[in-house]
Amino acid sequence: MLNRRLIRIKTFQALFGELGEQNSSAEKIISSVKKSMSGLRSNLFSVLSYGPELSHYLSIKQNPLEFKYKPTEEDVQTYKFIVENPFFLDLANHQVYAKYAQHPTLKWQDEEDVMFLMYKEFKNSDTYKASTSNPSEHNPIEFAKSLYKYLILDSVEFEQLMEDKNIFWYDEKIPILKSVEKIFNDLETSEEITIPSIFRNEDEDLAMVDNLVEQYSLHNAELQKELSNYTPKWDSDRITKIDYLLILMALLEFKYMPEIPVKVTMNEYIEIAKMYSTPKSSKFVNGTLDKILKEWKNKNLIQKKGRGLIG
Predict the structure, then answer these.
(1) What kind of fold does domain 201-309 have according to CATH?
(2) pTM above threshold 0.85
């Protein structure tokens, strides 16, 4: 599920990618951001599809009852936990999922070796041992949930594969995990699989992208000039391009997005600087924004309204 930080990150990435481009335009950047946002849904399905695809793969190629040697009880048990899991079976037959499966973003059939490595990795994990410690009380839904959480948070093989397939995986993994958790939480109450929307509020989320990019395009030159007044010993070449852009984006939220509280803007861009820039960047971004904010408030340049008045 998209949150406001991820929207800011995706907008920042699109703006950063267009820095210095001659043919850059607000429309092009907005289109790029929205395409990336919509891709989050396909990336969620890429994760979800691991369960049904693993189940299918094991049933066809790794059935322990067909091994030449006598399988262990654990081999048979684990096989059944996957192949007979009602969540994976229901998901495979889910109308929305089935539509994705016709043209998947990630084709697990092409990644069978890696898929099986992940399976063996999971079998040897403490997560697996905890979820199968008492077979008589086995909960197949909790087992499926634990598999997805392990993949997203702990599997080295899965992390490497997703980073290769999805350049936004680092940004999207936690929102995707939240969406997976929501699917299982909703399943407890509704007893059916519901694929959540990637948006909290689609109109508001898309409008935020429009506003960020349009305000940046309109006021970029002005904000750069303002910033130079507060960093006289730092020309733009000495400030990292990432920090420079993050500060400009924060300034436009201060001044031209009245519905966003200044504390929210400060916290968000400081955190993004910690994620994407140098170890000292967050302090630099914090100090610069704090200095400008104080002066702009004294000059009455910041006018907030509605939710923007909070904080």
Answers:
(1) N-utilizing Substance Protein B Homolog; Chain A (1.10.940)
(2) yes
